[in-house]
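Minutes, project check-in
Item: structure for the 225-residue chain
Input as provided by the requester:
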Amino acid sequence: MTRTTMSPLFRLSPLLVLVATSCPIAALAQGATPAAAKGPTMVWVGDLDKNHDGRIDKQEAAAVSGVAKAFDAIDQNHDGAITMSEVKAMWRGQLVQQLQTGVQSRMNAFAKADANHDGKLSAEEAKAGGMPFVVSNFKAFDANHDGFVSKDEMQKGATALAQQALAGRGQQMQGLFTKADTNKDGKLSQAEFTAAFPRFAPSFAFFDENHDGSVEPAEFALPPR
């Protein structure tokens, strides 16, 4: 499918990465410390790794109630500690879930806009049905160029957009990593990491999961924005 401008349905909501009383599992973003914050607390989970062993155990997680409550959900292998790999897996799971919801939302909108119930949309039906994104990208959705968007084309198009969003997240991280890797050796030393990402410098060990003194591409990711 031709690349199109990403719809808001396919952008990761900031609520998914903020600690808030209504969304404790999302306790994974930059922000103020619990003591200094007023209202919803925002904290980067890596800050809880106080002994810098690259893992957050339940005692460390207890410092932030949102992380403590979400501990078992994030600790996917149930070994009693949260690792960066598990945090990244949670981010991806949240993004996939949101994208799947976006695809279903488009299919629901398709059904409502299909005024004559023939299983396909004309540009006029899409416009009247309140689907401006489909209207503006009609040719991209209309894969067989017959002047209509069928249900199958809608499903495939919406899924393709979701896949683009996932790929875009990976490309964004690769770009940040490449820019930070100033000596171009394919890994980030602690000095390179600190210079590029000072907010996350105190949790370098949390990123460096294999404890080799550097952060490799497979270990690297920052919170979704």
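Outcome recorded: The longest strand covers residues 56-57.
No further action items on this chain.
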